[in-house]
Structure formats: C-alpha cells, structure tokens
Amino acid sequence: CGFQLRGELNIAEPVKHLHLTGKTSNPFTSRVRQRFPLYDIHIAANTDPQAYELSFLEVEEDTRSLSYDALARTSEYELSIEVEFTLLDNQGNTLIPPRKLYGEKTYNSNPNNVIASDNEEELLWKDLRVQVANALLNQLATIDPNKLEQLKEAQAAAEAKQEELDRHAIPPTANPTNRPQ
Amino acid sequence: ATPASAWQCQADGHGGWQCDGANSKASLTPTKPTAKATASSTVDASNKGSSIESSSPVNETPLSSAVEAAPTRSLATAPAAVPPASAAEEEPSNSSCGNNRELDWVPASELTQAQLATVKRGCNGMYVEPENDSPEADLKPEESPIRASANSSETVRRNRTRFTGDVAISQGSRRIFADSATAERDQQLLELDGNVVIRDNGVLMRGDSGSFNSADGTGSLDNAEFVIHEVSIRGDANLLTKSGEQTIELYDSRYTRCAPGNSDWYLQANEIDLDREEGFGSAKHAKIYVKDVPIAYVPYMTFPIDNRRRSGLLLPTLSTSKTGRGLDITQPYYFNLAENYDATLSPRYIGGRGLATELELRYLNQYSEWRLSGAQINDKYEGDEDEGEGEKNEKGEEIVNHQGKRWLVGVNEEGAIGRVGHRIDYTKVSDNDYLNDISAESLDVQRQTHLDQKAEFWTSAAGFTYRGEIQQYQTIDDTVATPYQLRPRLEMEKSGLEQSNQFNLLFLSEYSDFVHPDDKVQGQRIYLEPGISYPLESRWGFLTTTAKMRGIYYQLDEDRGPELDNTSPSTTSAMASVDAGLFFERDLELFGGSFTQTLEPRVFYLYSQYQEQDENPLFDTAELTFSYNQLFRDTRFNGHDRIDDANQVSTGITTRFIDKATGVERASFSLGQINYFDDRKIGISEWNETDYDTNSSHSDIASEVTYRLNESFRMSGDILWDNENDETKQGSLTLRYNNDGKLIVNASLRKSQSADIYAEDINGNPTDEILWKGDVNQSDLSGVVPLNDRWALIGRYNYDHTNNRSLEEIVGIEYNSCCWKTQLVYQEGIDGNNEREHGLYLYFQLKGLGGVDNGLDLDDSIVGYKEREQDDR
Amino acid sequence: LPSDRNQPIHIYSDRLERDEKTAVTTYIGNVKLDQGSLHITADKLVIYQANGDLSKIQAIGKPAHLQQLPEVGQQIVYAQGEVIDYFSDKDLLILTKNASITQDGTLVKSERIEYLISEEIIKAKGSAEATSGDDRVHVVIPPSQTNNKAHSAPEKTPEQPSPSQPPLSDEE
Lengths: 181, 873, 172
What we know:
Chain A contains 3 helices and 6 strands, in the order E-E-H-E-E-E-E-H-H. Chain A is of the alpha/beta class.
C-alpha cells in the first residue's frame, strides 16, 4: 500500500544554524536547546550574523481543571502548551510565517495524594515539551534547500536595483565632502 | 530627469495639498485649517479641537481644553524660549474643517486586508503612517542626508539656508513639513513655522511652529497634536517637547485612545511624559474626563503606552456580594514606583462582611522576579441563617463561622543566580473557607483543596542535574487527606539525552524526608536507580534496550507514628526493557491537499522483578493515569514507594497526516494495548499487596485522535475501551474553534468511571446509601460570540450529567468601543463547599490607560479568553 | 578666487564670431574658458563688453558647467544650467533651466538659481513654467561629520533587567 521506510529528515543546511529570539527563557526552549543538537541543528549565539533566526513569539503553558468529582473537587487536569514561532533568514526575510503549535495532555487528579499528582504533572510537561519540539522540527524540515536558493537570488536582484537607484539619485557633480575642519 | 526626491507637494487650489511621492498608497493630503487662509492679524484663536463629523450620531463636542493659568514651563531643553501660551479660550471649532486625514486616521473602508486584521476591537479604522519612499527610508536619521524641497530657498554664508513655500524635509526615517524652515547647518537645527508636521519612528507630531535638532532628535512644537500609530494614542498640548529620541513631554495636554472625533474619555494633565523606551507614560495633576465629565483627579499616575504588561488607573469592579447583602466593590490603584517594581492596592467593600484591602507588590531584579500578595478583612458576617454552627455543608464539612480577622498571604518568586534556578510558591490563608468566601477569583480557584507551600532550586553541573525542594501544603478541605511534607527532597540525576549507537550510563537518586502532622508513619527514604541503555536509532526506526536496578531504602521514625515491626524496610528489584519502533511513510493526496502519511508501529517489552513490598509505607506514590503514553513507560507508578512487578509487552501504532507544504500535522491517530504475561501483584494500598483483578491478561485499549482543520479549528479525543466486558472506561472529545479571538467556541464531553461516595453514619463509617455517584459524565460548552464589531456574548454551560447539576453557568454581554469596554456577566456554579452560589459582575476598562483585568476571572472557564483579552489591552 | 579677476582668460572653442558694433564675441562648439580657478565648459559662450570692460558672460549648453574656488581652503563650487549668466559688476551668477549648484557638498537644484559670489548668497526659486514641470527647489545636505561624532549611541541598548536565563536543562 505504498509505505516505505522513512528517509532522512532533510533540514536545509543553513537552517541547521539557528539563534533563538523572543521568549527564550522557559522550560520549553530549554528542551529545544537540548534536543535540536541531536538532529545536528546548532544553536548559535545571538550575535552570530550567519545564523538564521528562530523567534518564539509566544510560549504559553496552562493547567486547567477539566472535570470535577461529586464533591466539586477536580478529578481531571488538562495541561496545554501553545507555541507561536516564526523562522527568518539572516537577512530578516520570513521563511516560515508566524504559526502556532499545540499540545494537550490530561491526567486524573488525586486529591488524597497531592504530591503524586504534582509528580505526574511534571512528567506530562516533559512529554508535552518533547512532543511540541518534534512538531517544530517537522516544520523546519519543510524548508527545502532550493527554495532558499531562489530567495537568495531574489534578494541579490533587489539589492542591485537599489544601488542603481541610489547612484542615480545623487548627480555625478557632487564631489565627496572633505569639509575644512 | 529630476532626481528621485522624497515628496513634491503642490497646493491643489482648494486649501489642500496634493503630495505625491513615487508610489505612495495613502497620499498625504493634509488639510490646512482654514483659519490660516483668513490671515487674521489678531491672535490666531487656533483651533485645538479636531471636531470631525464622527459617524456616531451623538454630536461630539471637541476635546475641550479648559486651560487654567498658563503653566510656567522651564524649558531647559527647548532652545527657543517660548512665551507661555495665551489663554486661548475654547472657540466653537466648527469653523475648521480639519478632517481625520490630518491625524493619519484611515477608516476601515479604505484599509487593505492585512491592515484590517490589525484593527483594534471596536474601532472602525486605524492610524496608518504614510509610506516613506525616500531612498534612506529605513536608515537612522543621523546616518542619512537631509533632502529638502520647497518653493524657494536662500543660503547665506554657506551656513544658514531658509526654505519657504511647502517645505518638505526628509532625513532617513524622519520627515518634516512646514510652510517655512530655516536650517543652521552646523548645529543641524531647524526652525519651523506654519503647519509643522514631524514624522519620526512611528510618531506623528503637528503644530503651528517649532524647532527641531536633527542631530539628536530633540525639539519642540507649539499648539501641538500628536499620534503614536502602533498603539493608536492621540492627544494635543499647548507645548510638545522631545527631550530625546524616545521621549516626548506634553505641557497642558490631553491624551486619549479614542478615534479622532470621539472623546468618550481623555486624560487632561499639566504635564504628560511619554517614554517609548520604557513603554509607559506618566501624568502630573491628571484629571480623567468621561464624556467631558471629570470623574477622577490623580496627583501623579502612570499608564502603559505599549502592550508590555503594565497597568494604569483602573476603574471599579462591581458585583453582587456572595453574602446576598448588597454589593461587592473593588477600586484598584496602581503605583508604578520604579521601572522595576510596582504595587497594586485594591480597597474592597464586601456587602455583609465589611472592608477588605488587597495589595500586590511586584519586584524585578536581574536575579529574580518577585510577586508578594496579601489581603485581609475584619469579617463581620455571622453566616447564613439556615446553616447554624455545627451543621454540615453539602460537602459534609463542619460549618464554622469565621468572624474577625481573615487573611491571605502569597509569595511567588522565580529566577536564577548564576546557573542555579530557584522558585518559591507559597500561599497561606487564615481559614479553610477564605478562598470560598472572600476571594474574588474563579470558581476553579475556590474549588482548590490544597495550597502549595514550596521552595525549590535546580542546577546542572558535571553532567548531572540536581534538584532540591522543601514542600508542604495547606489543606483547606476537610474531606481530603492531609499530604506528607517533604523536609526536604533532594534529587540527583545524570542529565543529557541518551546518545544513540553506544552504551549510556543512566543514574537517578533521591533522598526525601517525609514528615506528617498527624500520627502517621513518617521517616526518610533513599531511592536509587542506576542503569545502562543501548539505543540503536536512525530515521526509519529505533531499538533501545535498557537495564536498571531500582532500590528503595527506608529509615522510619520509631517515636512518631504507629508501632512498626520493621523500621528500615527496603526493596531492590531489577528491570529490563526493549523498545522497538519503525517509521513508514507514503505520499497521499487527500481532499485536494498533498500529505505525508506516516505509520509508526511500536513494541515495548517490560520485565521487572517481583519483590515483596508490604512493609513499605505509602508516602508519595500513586498510579499513573492510563493513557496511550502510559503503554511505553517503564513504571505504572509515580513516586518511589513501589517498584513494579511486570512481565508485559505493549503494542501500539500511530499514524499521522502531515501537510507537505507547511509541515503542519493535520491529523494523528494512535491505538495500543498492554498484554500481561504474569498477573500483577504490587498495588498502592498500604500494608497489603494485591488489589488488582488477577484474571485480565491485557489492559484496556488506549486510543487518541487529533485533527486540525486550519489555524482556527482543532479537535482531539481519547478513549480507553475495555474489550473484555465491552465498555468504555474513559472517553473524551474536545472541539476548539478560535479565529484570533474574534469568535471562540469550545465544546467537550468527558466520561470516566470512578467509585461512588457513600453517606457516612454518625460515627463516620460508610453506609450503603449512595450520597453521590462517582462516575464522571460531564459536558462543557463555552465561547465568545460577537454580535457585531462592538457587542459580544460570553457564555459557558458546564453540566454534570451523573449528578444532574450544572457546575458553572455564565451568561455575559460585552460592549467594546474603540477606547473603552464594559462587561456585565452573570455567573452561577458549585463553589468550594459543593454549594450553589451565584453573582452578577459589572466591569469597566479604559483602553490605553491599562487595566489589570479585574473583572470576573474567565481565563479558566473559557479556553482562549485569556489571549483574546491580552491583545485588546 | 577673488584673485581670478586679474588672471589671464583662456578660451578654446571650435569657432569664433566677433561683432565689433555691439562688442559681442561668441564662441561656438565645445567651448572651454579658464581664468584662474574659474572654469566654464559650454556649447556656446557669449561675452559682452561695455566700454572695453567685461560686462557679462553667457554660457549655453545641455547643460553648461561652471566651477570656481571661492576662497583658499574652501571647497570648489560646481554650478550647471542650460543658461549660465555671469554679471561681473555685481559678481552675480544666474543659472536657469535644470540649474544646480554644489557648495560644501550641499546640492541645490531648481529652475532658477542666483549666486551672489562675494556675499556668498545662493537664492533658488522654482517657476511654474519650468521645462521639466517641476517648479520646486530641491536641496540635499549630506550627513555632516559633526553629528556622527556627536553621539555614538551604545550599540545595544541595555535590555530591561529580566531574570537571567535559568540553567540549561532543569529536567531529564
């Protein structure tokens, strides 16, 4: 029925060199920093001019009661995570427009053993962050290398036109200003 | 051919200006106030109000500016000593025909699709900054040449150039227009006169005359009007000065976020300072006018001028008091004490109880972020007549009357010093019913059974992660057990992920000291989990074998708790697991989209040696919720008081549909089950072993489904199906629709089986009469439905079908104008005492002056409501 | 330069016509005039003399160019225009039609520019019947070096103090 084993996760070379911006000091982005190197995506310093920019516009984690038992005590909790991200190249062109990733997990709360419930919540948060980090990887993998090439050519053409426009704007006679100090 | 200059502006003959840049979308057609045309010699009673025929039928009186004594201004910064403005009394300004164009206001009908998406709720237009098509449009002013055009110019001594006649000057991103201008070349100082317009990084400033220093972006403008497009703020002032690139000072000024022509509210003050770097403004001697009626005077106040979360003056919240006697009114005051700490003080009158005060302090430094909250009340309420002392509430709790001092204290902190992260989460209340009786929070909060009181730290060094915490809970519900306290818990774990195709050492160790206020078993416990794993991983599959030793060693107290024959029980057990999975893919054309469908079979074999554990106490262990994920975990417990006995294999399969173009996972479906080769004996009942039914050889079938139609519509569901006796143990279905906060609809249905609650006879042992049925069968419908761009309905209906009662009903109506909002919400539901309560909440907000949403907290009741509120601050 | 006046005038051109009656000399065809620091190039140059002295020079070209060094140590002034008239008695230069003048890097362009050389006053005016339909004056003042030094803003504005990022992996 047409299934064959999955081939390589083809993440375009330049996309393997990212620096993270936006909401980057939270447990989710710590997870991203930890897992991305496994797929040889290098998280660069913010000052690296070559690195593409993965910007986290929103990282929202919420815990909510889903259902209540007969004594109005929470019987199920829902953990939900919503991450909004966008990917820009090192010139600031948008490769992936702002997009949202979601993840939800539920667990049975145990009012008589609150410590156990807290432990389970911590465990599910770990699973959720890994799940959304993987979904983020799938999105990065959609940037295929030749799409990047076209973008570079379009950019080079635009810059050439701009220089021509500049040269035209200032008439040739104006000599460079070497003002007497 | 003429060089591409920024703007050519020609008078278009009937008092307007037609300026065409190369291809500007919204061409700048400022309309000169007609007063100019009459060239009257008397003091030009300049028209301050921009009375524009607004769409709303109410005849708009212009922004009246009752100018008191002309303010004395020390204009250290403004170079030209400006005489205090003559008391320009307000002349009915229907003479001037300044239209909205003057303030860059573009009605919705002329906006592009992209712009329409960013129009703020309740507004029928937005401020649009005209395109700047000068070649250096996105360069910093100081790095770009000054391009000027005028009808005529005169340069004297190579230094001073005077332009006259529709002067248009552009320097990088900055653009300046005036009737005439004089440029002093060396100090880059521009003197401007007549219809001065200055556009500088997202701000529009207009005035009669002024000066501008293009070296450092400072300057001043008389009789000014201004607009900050991004946050749609406008206002006017007798004098506007710019003391820096990002700061604006307004003297004798008015400030509002209402659309031009609408003055539903405005802030009038002697001095308003706007700091766009910090994102907030401050006003001295401020008066708030609503429909031209002054409603508040504040000697000093601050307010946010961008979307960074900072609040300003807040309007009162009104609701019916839960005691059923009168109203519950809160009037919060916000003090921005410094740019890294602020305070919100909220005096509150609760009908039937008396006056309460709530205070929240927030403090930020580079190590951590603190939030201290406190509230107290001297409660005079003697309780309901029909519930005397000593009787039981619906939950079966003793009814206690808490007259006198009642309080809540909260400390929240999060931060890091060097590589050590830390967090404090401590809340304490004076009595069990405080949250239920006093707190104005959501029903969710009122139904809380425990309050966290913990401090934790974590760090990682030399390949290990260390965590430590001291934790206890304040139990505010008599029907639940008081949990153990952790004094402390310390954890050390080998950090870093398992590297594939090589041996990995695994190590987890934990020391915890359990203390309990009652006479229960307590003591210390050490848990060790050394292990080794060998993962074989590649894109198309994985095979991971893991082996671990798991050991628990107790040192229980002899003098506290019951008599124990063995005070240092211990258990050690070996465990091995093999986790194997494959990833298949195929391309698929479906409903006109091209997808990659994956097929991910997975097998997980788990063997864990049975060890006797009936001498082990039960401190923090419970069974993990059974779900598809649980199939592939190497333990069915969380906490470390029990070690699994297991000889089982889990099989599961997941299929995903990934949109080829965007990489978005449109749908996924998973199904799996565990087959037990041996019966499981270890359970979580204290002091005895088996509490599992020994005859079932496999678990329920666990399945999960998710579906995402587009950015707005999502669906998810899961089912635990017991194929032995053909019944659904647990099932849920959730639909979520949210198109960027405009229309929100959530619908969910939840079913799960759990034990019934039996009534207790007088000495507390259960009778066979069922008090409440245990099964959960609940539906929840909630949402925000806009009626038009101003009115919206808010609602929720959360119904418990097993016990035939509604857990929460909300019906609300919201009116959103461009610059203010009001909400009237009726809420009825089951509170923390399992009793029905209801309340009516009325809430106002002046948009632009900030508003901590002090109305009814609907964030937990309606999914998506929180984000909707955040982007309409 | 003020000293240009008493410098010899050299004029080169393809052809020359002299009308004694009106004391008008006309040079035609890639005309070049040098007098000290004053240099004029044009298609046609007409020199008017009154009682022996030079009263007016008119240069016509598409456009005609003129450059001169006003003072030692200052920068050369470049001027151009389809018609350039120089009135020596008033030391006045009038440039018309696509006129432009560059002084200390500042470029002034319009239909008609008057330059009182000794008093160093440049007046520019647009005119409605301009050939190119542009009746405005355009001035381009380069970013002067003074303000680049004035304030070198710190490269990265210090970020609002936010808790430093918690250490890398607080779980797993």
